[in-house]
Amino acid sequence: MAPKPPSPNARDLPVGFRTIFWVDVLFTVGAFVTNLYLVTLPVDQQTDAVKSFAEGCNSVWKIGVGGFFGLLFGKGAR
């Protein structure tokens, strides 16, 4: 039995693009989940270091969302 041919709508994306895309997704999700966990800690466990790290995670997931949309809708993805 012959393998099914790919869909005519399927794009053959370079391995480098797919790698960067999934790394961006993993960092974004990881930073978001970490930030969510840290901000839900009780107030007495939130030291200055924890607050600073949570702010960093907050920035990372926002930048990651921008990177995600940039990779999806950027000129190079077409």
Could you characterize the architecture of this molecule?
By secondary structure, the chain is mainly α. It is 65% helix and 0% strand. The chain is built from two helices and no strands. The chain has helices spanning 15-39, 48-73. Helix 1 packs antiparallel against helix 2 (48-73). The chain is elongated. It starts with 14 loop residues before the first helix and ends in a 5-residue tail after the last helix. The mean pLDDT is 87.
Largest sheet: none
Q: How confident overall, as mean pLDDT? A: 87
| Proportion of helical residues | 55-70%
Indicate the structural class.
mainly alpha
Task: Provide the number of structural domains.
Answer: 1
Q: Could you give the distance between the termini? A: 33 Å
Low-confidence stretches: none
How many DSSP-defined strands?
A: 0
- Principal-axis shape: elongated
Share of residues in strands: under 5%
Helix-strand sequence: HH
